[in-house]
Amino acid sequence: MVTAATTNKFVIAADDDAFCQQILKTLLTALKAEHVIVGDGEAAVSEYKKRNGEVGLVLLDIHMPKKDGYQAAQEISQLGTTRIVGLSADNDATTQSNAKKAGMESLVTKPIKKAELAKLLV
Predict the structure, then answer these.
(1) Are 82 and 12 in contact (CB under 8 A)?
(2) Extended strands (E) in 1-122
(3) In the predicted model, what is the mean pLDDT of the chain?
(4) Is the peptide bond before 111 cis (omega within 30 degrees of 0)?
(5) Which of 27, 41, 58, 75 has the least CB density, counted as fewest CB within 10 Å?
């Protein structure tokens, strides 16, 4: 059984798809992780700047408007050392490589499962 998150750090989750946002919100709430859900990479960077030092994990969809996940990860990486994980339906070698180059520690295939998310929160 998956239990509550052991981290006390804030989570920013960015995805432009309303269904994926709802999944993330439901899972993060069930895991008792304090979080905010935003709809694009630009908003994710903005939230990160507002919450300087509080953020323990940033989840970024790869394909988003305004700023995609790669661009947002690069910018957030320059601002601090927060863990960044990509979210994508694409799990090919190119996407994996591009995620690493952008500063993401890993790439999780969507839809993310509760157990996968719980591991990221520890």
Answers:
(1) no
(2) 10-14, 35-38, 55-61, 83-88, 106-109
(3) 92
(4) yes
(5) 75
Reading phi first (left if > 0) and then psi (alpha if -120 to 50, else beta), residue 103 is in left
CA distance 8 to 75: 24
Cα–Cα distance for residue pair 105/95, rounded to 1 Å: 13
pLDDT < 70: residue spans in the chain? 1-8
- The sign of the torsion formed by the CA atoms of 87, 65, 56, 20 equals negative
Q: Return the pLDDT at 4.
A: 45
pLDDT in the model for residue 6: 44
- Report how far apart, in Å, the C-alpha atoms of 37 and of each of 34, 47, 63, 91 are: 10, 10, 15, 23
The pLDDT, as a whole number, for residue 38 is 98
Alpha-carbon torsion (87, 92, 94, 96), positive or negative: positive
CA proximity to 9, closest of 59, 79, 78: 59
At 112 the pLDDT is: 94
Q: What is the pLDDT of residue 3?
A: 44
